[in-house]
């Protein structure tokens, strides 16, 4: 099966409508790219992670579920209640990102 990973900040791009005609099995919401300035003044580029992305992720699920494809949510998930919230919004599944390398908050999966 073909799953298209779409960065959170690209879910409304015009090219996406064409991609949906490729016989996709699902669409996966991926972290957006960004930049920050370090304490030394260097600009660091890469993927953005963290709980601040959760509201945007939920909005993306609500938008992408209208395509009729299963949506794999992600970005900003750190608690069981957030997984449940994304599933309630229409996600077929939820992927984890920063919680895997930062660790789950104590009691968050209860």
Describe this structure in words.
With 110 residues, the chain is α/β, with parallel strands linked by helices. 27% of the residues lie in helices and 23% in strands. The protein is built from 4 helices and 6 strands. The N and C termini lie far apart (33 Å).
* SS class: alpha/beta
Number of helices: 4
Tally the beta strands: 6
Mean pLDDT: 87
Widest sheet: strand ordering: 1-2-5-6
The amount of helix comes to 25-40%
Q: Give a short account of the largest sheet.
A: 4 strands, parallel
Shape, principal axes of CA atoms: globular
| Portion in beta strands | 15-25%
Please tell me how large the radius of gyration is: 15 Å
Helix and strand run: EHEEEHEHEH
Distance between the termini: 33 Å
Spans where pLDDT lies below 50 across 5 or more residues: none
List keywords for this structure.
alpha/beta, two-stranded antiparallel ribbon, 110 residues, single chain, 23% strand, 6 strands
What does the secondary structure layout of this molecule look like, with pairings?
Blueprint: E1 3-7, H1 15-19, E2 26-30, E3 33-37, E4 43-47, H2 54-64, E5 71-73, H3 80-88, E6 93-94, H4 98-102
Parallel strand pairs: 1-2, 2-5, 5-6
Antiparallel strand pairs: 3-4
Provide a concise account of the structure shown:
The chain has 110 residues and is of the alpha/beta class. Helices cover 27% and strands 23% of the residues. The chain has helices at residues 15-19, 54-64, 80-88, 98-102, and strands spanning 3-7, 26-30, 33-37, 43-47, 71-73, 93-94.
